[in-house]
Amino acid sequence: MHGAIGSGAVLAVVATCIVLAMLTVVTHAISLTVIRRRLTHRISGKVYADHVFVEAVIISATVLSLSLVHLAEVCIWAAAYVLLDAIGDPRDAIYYSLSTYTTLGPDGVTIARSFRAVAGFESLIGPMMVAWSTAFLVEFVVRMRGGNTGTG
Fold first, then answer.
1. Which one of 31, 34, 119, 130 is at 20 to 30 Å from 41 when CA atoms are compared?
2. What is the pLDDT of residues 68-125, one digit of tens each?
3. Of 81, 115, 113, which Cα lies nearest the Cα of 97?
4. Residue 71, CB half-sphere, CA atoms under 13 Å: how many?
5. Hey, what long-range contacts does 4-8 have (CB within 8 A, 24 or more apart)?
């Protein structure tokens, strides 16, 4: 895909974006399901509004779990960059992917020109996953404080 951009190259880039997006979303959905089940079991029938320390520990563990999910998703994109020879060094690929996923923008690491659209697509998907995690976290904080007893 390093050559001139033709219709085949464009289709390959689009296909790459779709595959990586689907892997990211499926990873996120499965991970949130696992975290949701563990949290639901942990907070079922309990209200933590008056237990600040316990609530803080549960929220911290949840934030850490969500962060690890995001890191796994970053690694999916980084692995693709290395496998597709878009970025040669795996450490640079992880840095580039993390910077792109969070829309910070990488500094000092470049991607092969023909993969810029893939990186742009990662910067579209990343914030959606972060927003999904934020909504998930808010849902459980509200439930822990007794605001919603549904299982989501």
1. 130
2. 999 999 999 999 999 999 999 999 999 999 999 999 988 889 999 989 999 999 999 9
3. 81
4. 6
5. 5/114
Instruction: Determine the angle formed by the axes of helices 116-144 and 52-83, rounding to 10 degrees.
Output: 160
Distance CA 82, CA 92 (A): 9
Q: Is the confidence at residue 42, as pLDDT, over 90?
A: no
CA distance 2 to 12: 11
84 in Cβ contact with 115 (< 8 Å): yes
User: For a pLDDT cut of 70, what percent of the chain falls above it?
Assistant: 89
36: amino acid identity, one letter: R
For 15-31, the pLDDT digits (tens) are: 999 999 999 999 999 99
**C-alpha count within 13 angstroms, C-beta hemisphere, residue 144:** 22
Cβ-contact 114, 13 below 8 angstroms: yes
Q: First-to-last CA distance in the chain?
A: 43
DSSP state of 6: -
pTM of the model: 0.86
